[in-house]
Hints:
Elements: H1 2-17, H2 21-31, H3 34-37, H4 43-71, H5 77-82, H6 85-93, E1 101-103, H7 105-118, H8 139-164, H9 176-193, H10 195-199, H11 211-221, H12 228-250, H13 261-276, H14 278-281, H15 309-334, H16 340-355, E2 362-364, H17 366-374, H18 381-397, H19 406-416, H20 418-421, H21 426-433, H22 435-450, H23 453-471, E3 484-485, H24 496-499, E4 502-506, H25 516-533, H26 539-552, H27 558-563, E5 569-574, H28 583-598, E6 601-606, H29 610-619, E7 629-630, H30 633-654
Parallel strand pairs: 4-5, 5-6, 6-7
Antiparallel strand pairs: 1-2, 3-4
Amino acid sequence: MTGAKRKKKSMLWSKMHTPQCEDIIQWCRRRLPILDWAPHYNLKENLLPDTVSGIMLAVQQVTQGLAFAVLSSVHPVFGLYGSLFPAIIYAIFGMGHHVATGTFALTSLISANAVERIVPQNMQNLTTQSNTSVLGLSDFEMQRIHVAAAVSFLGGVIQVAMFVLQLGSATFVVTEPVISAMTTGAATHVVTSQVKYLLGMKMPYISGPLGFFYIYAYVFENIKSVRLEALLLSLLSIVVLVLVKELNEQFKRKIKVVLPVDLVLIIAASFACYCTNMENTYGLEVVGHIPQGIPSPRAPPMNILSAVITEAFGVALVGYVASLALAQGSAKKFKYSIDDNQEFLAHGLSNIVSSFFFCIPSAAAMGRTAGLYSTGAKTQVACLISCIFVLIVIYAIGPLLYWLPMCVLASIIVVGLKGMLIQFRDLKKYWNVDKIDWGIWVSTYVFTICFAANVGLLFGVVCTIAIVIGRFPRAMTVSIKNMKEMEFKVKTEMDSETLQQVKIISINNPLVFLNAKKFYTDLMNMIQKENACNQPLDDISKCEQNTLLNSLSNGNCNEASQSCPNEKCYLILDCSGFTFFDYSGVSMLVEVYMDCKGRSVDVLLAHCTASLIKAMTYYGNLDSEKPIFFESVSAAISHIHSNKNLSKLSDHSEV
C-alpha cells in the first residue's frame, strides 16, 4: 500500500511539474511579444506606413541621440548607439506598438550627475588621446561613457528585479497628475541645460539642489558673454521648427508625407557652417568629430556600481514611469492591452544589453512616440526600420555631422520638448475636476524643479498616498466594498422586454487611483457573470440578455446584432455610494461611458453629486443631446421607458 501511494504521489508530482509543449509556447509568446504580432504582420497594409514612420523616426533618433549624449556629459557618438540597441531590444520584448525607445532627456540628466561626480571636467587635462583606445577617443571620454554605461546596467538590473518581484502591479500609485508634473519639471530642467548652447556661453556644470536657479543666476551674471550669432541662429531655428511643425500638424490630413524639418535644418545648418567656417570665424561650438562604426561589446566596470546606485534607481524608476505612461496611452488609443510587469522586463533588458555597447540609459520619449502617431505607424516594425537608417548614419553619414552647430541641435531639442512643456495646460482641468490633484501637480513640479526628477516623483507618490489615506476614513460608507448588482424594485408599468435590456450597478466605494482599474474590471466581469448565469432557452430572449455583454466585451457580437438589430441596451450606474473621487476616478468613469457609447450602449448615472457632474462634464466629451445624469434610479428607468415608447410611436408612424 505504501509503495502504491508513493507511486501515485510521484505520478501526480510529475504531472504537476513537467512543463508541456503548449505551456512553453504560451510562456514564450507572453515574454517575447514579437512572436505574437510578427507572424500576423500584414506587409501590404502596414509596410509602407511603417517605412515612412521609420524614416521620420530615424531623424529624431539621430538628433536626440546626439543632444542627449551631450546632456549626459559623454561624447555625441554614444548617443547614436543609444538610439540603436535599446530600440531593437524593446521591439522584441516590449508590448507597446507605438512606443519609441532610445535616448531620453530625463535619464540622461540623471546619469550626468554620476558622470560629472566620478569623472569631472577638470580630469580632461590629465588624459591624452590614445590611438589604441576605442574609436580613437581619449581616455577621458572612455572613462565617462564607462560611468554612464554602469548607470544603465545597474538601472536595468533594478528594473529586471522589479519584474521578478511583480512590482508592475504597484504602479497604480503613480497617478496621472504626478507623471504630468514630473515630466513637465524634467522638461524644464532639460531646457535649462540647453541654455548655454542656445546663448553660445561657456558654463561650468551646475547640479544639485536648487541647481536650476543657480544656472539662471550664472547666466544673468555673465550676460555679456552671450554670443549674438549663436542667439540669432537659435531663435531662427526655433521659429522655423515651430512654424513648419504647426503647418505639418494642421495639414497632415491633406498631405501624405510631412516635411522632415529637423533633417532639412540639420543639413542646411551644417552646410552653412561649413561654407562660412562659423567655428573659427564666430566661435560657434559644433558637434565635432563623429567616429565611424560600432566598437566591440565590453562589460561595464563593476567596481563603480556602488558609487552610482542612487542614479541607477533614478534611471530605473523615472525611465520606467515615463515609458509606461506612453505605453498605456498608446494601448488606450489603439485599443490593445499591455502588461505592466512585461514593460519592466523590456526596459530592463534594453538597459542591460545596451550597456555592453557603450550606451547611455534609455527609455521611451514623448516626442518620438507622438511622431509615430502623426506619421501613421502601425507596429514596432517602424522602430526596427529606423534602426537601419541609424546604422547608415553610424557607418557612413556620421562624419558629415562635424559642422552641425550645437545651438541648432539645442533648438531641435527644445522644440522637441513641446509636448511635455504644454502639460502646463493640465492645471486648468485639474482645478476644475479635483483641486487636490491640482495641488499635487503644483507641489510635485516645484519639488522636481528644486531638486530632481526622481525626488519629485517620490514626493508626488508619497503625497498622493498620504492624501488618499487621509480621505478614506472620512468617507460616508462604513466599510469599503466591491461593486455589487443592486436589487432594485420599482413600481412601474415597464414590460419585461425592456427590463431585460437594462443592467443596474451600484458603486459602493470612492473611485480614486487606487481602485480605478479594478472598477472597470469588476464592472465588465459582473456583466459577463450575470449574463452567463441567466441565459434563457429561446433565441429571442438570448439575444436580449446577451446584447449588453457582447457590446461591452471585445468578443464577436455579429450574431447577436444580426438577430436583434434594433435592440437598445442600457447600463445604469447608481452613484449614491460614490462619496469622493479624484482625477483618475473621473477619467475611468468617462472612459467607461465612451467605451459603452462606441458599442451602442447608453450609460445613465443616478444619484450623482454636483461636483461629480461638473467634473465629468468638464473632463469628457459627453453627449449633450441626451441626458445622462438623473436624480434617482427610478428616474433613469422612467427615461428609458419613455424613450422606448417614443421609438415605438415613430415606428408605427413610419408604417
